[in-house]
Automatic annotation (TrEMBL):
Keyword vocabulary terms for this entry: Magnesium, Metal-binding, Molybdenum, Molybdenum cofactor biosynthesis, Transferase
Catalytic reaction annotation: adenylyl-molybdopterin + molybdate = Mo-molybdopterin + AMP + H(+)
Domain of life (superkingdom): Bacteria
Protein name according to UniProt: Molybdopterin molybdenumtransferase
Origin species: Methylomarinovum caldicuralii
Length: 414
């Protein structure tokens, strides 16, 4: 069945998958890079493959405190010296001898194994081995983690804690990383007030900008808060036009829907921009606008706070990620039984807020939270996952398996 003939498909609403394909299809990664010290490189995207300038471990060494021996030797061995981490034993282990050794110390010449000290009987300057020794036992071979010249870290990797450790372990002090896209964001709506003001009847605090700032903090971008704009076409148009000169991505919230005060589509045109997409078969997030203004990609997110989260995570984040040159990723999705029946109107792909938890048998299950309105931020804060219900679904019965997308900042490479 073609999608246009699908009776569950809402006419005029673009499926999320199609929208994402269209958005990502047009975006090419920003080409420029810069060198940064490793201690500033956390979260940045590596601009090219890096090769290991040395093997890791750099030299063969002991994995345990004990005695460096020749595995073929048996019986009582004479201790001829000590190998410390940072201070090698200068001699050689010959037949019938061994060297006292500590974890991380270079394995002395002649030795091919380390026996843990708990497994020997020491008497004066001798030890006796109580069991046969395997060659290579408790030995960390030079290059066993990475050979010199092997790929240390690949292009497009987001540098995380372990990566920074690996770079330092290999003696790399500066790394080439992609330039961070500049992302401007503003909220729109006459009802919005800053946190410094007392609310008059009908007014609300501008929460979306705070949430957006938090969402952007998880990405390697330079985020620029452009404040709150009133429902005024001229001012919105001017804001978009000016901001587009200085940003790679421009995000607004509110004014994306069909009411008379929903001015962002008109403002985009007034600013010389163009609309590529409007209205998705997505709940929450239906009124999303995607387009271009100047050199900036534009996302007009709906005003409802939960819709902001869902559209940012499902569309804006992958788009920004592509601009950063990061490796492609897919969100982690799990199949998990749902503890209760769920109802849903067919027509839009739905992201319900849920909690993954263990049931009394220790099995992972999910429960949808009460408060599924797209204004209900408190329920979003209690959630630890989305329950993803397909567009054509009419819901599920208790115990049925559903697709769950856990909240995580981890990205999973394809
Ligand atoms: N007749 C129709 N009405 C609506 C439709 C529709 O298809 N037909 N769609 C609904 C859906 S779905 C959504 S989502 C909203 C989104 O509309 P807008 O993008 O135009 O957003 P606003 O109307 O400006 O605001 C919606 C809601 O969110 C509050 N808001 C806005 N900005 C902020 C902010 N910065 N911080 C906190 N809260 C904010 C605003 O006060 C409204 O309550 O439209 C439905 N309507
Ligand atoms: O799409 Mo709206 O975001 O359902 O409330």
């Amino acid at each position: 069945m073609t999608s246009s003939a699908d009776p569950c498909r809402r006419p005029g609403l673009v499926p999320l998958e199609q929208a994402l394909k269209q958005i990502l299809g047009g975006i090419v990664p920003l080409p420029d890079d810069e060198w940064v010290p490793v201690h500033d490189a956390g979260g940045r995207i590596l601009a090219c493959d890096l090769q290991a300038p040395m093997p890791l471990p750099a030299f063969t060494n002991a994995a345990m405190d004990g005695y460096a021996v020749r595995a073929q030797d048996r019986g009582r061995l004479k201790i001829i010296g000590t190998a410390w981490a940072g201070k090698a034993f200068p001699g050689r282990v010959e037949a019938g001898t061994c060297v006292r050794i500590f974890t991380g110390a270079p394995l002395p010449e002649g030795a091919d194994a380390v026996v843990m000290q708990e497994q020997v009987v020491r008497e004066g300057d001798t030890v006796s081995l109580s069991a046969p020794v395997r060659p290579g036992e408790n030995v960390r071979r030079a290059g066993e983690d990475l050979e010199r010249g092997a790929v240390l870290l690949p292009e497009g990797k987001r540098l995380q804690a372990a990566d920074l450790g690996l770079l330092a372990a290999a003696g790399v002090s500066q790394v080439p990383v992609r330039l961070r896209p500049r992302v401007g964001f503003f909220s729109s709506g006459d009802e919005l007030r800053p946190l410094t003001e007392t609310l008059q009847p009908g007014q609300i605090y501008d929460s979306n900008r705070y949430a957006l700032k938090g969402l952007l903090r998880e990405l390697p971008v330079v985020a620029c808060d452009l404040g709150a704009q009133p429902d005024d076409l001229e001012r919105l148009g001017a804001c978009l036009r000016l901001a587009a000169e200085h940003t790679d991505v421009l995000i607004s919230t509110g004014g994306a829907s069909v009411g008379e005060a929903d001015l962002l589509r008109q403002a985009l045109i007034l600013a010389g921009g163009e609309i590529h997409l409007w209205r998705l078969a997505l709940k929450p997030g239906k009124p999303l606008i995607f387009g271009r203004v100047g050199r900036a990609w534009y996302f007009g997110l709906p005003g409802n706070p939960v819709s902001v989260h869902v559209t940012f995570q499902q569309l804006v984040r992958p788009a920004i990620w592509r601009l950063t040159g990061g490796r492609p990723y897919r969100p982690l999705r799990l199949q998990v039984p749902c503890t209760q029946p769920l109802r849903k109107e067919p027509g839009r792909l739905e992201f319900q807020r849920g909690r993954l938890h263990y049931d009394s048998d220790g099995k992972l299950v999910v429960t949808a939270l009460s408060g599924q309105g797209s204004h209900q931020l408190a329920a979003l804060c209690r959630a630890n996952c989305y329950i993803v219900l397909p567009a054509d679904s009419r819901g599920v019965s208790a115990g049925e398996t559903v697709t769950v997308e856990p909240f995580t900042t981890d990205l999973f490479d394809d």
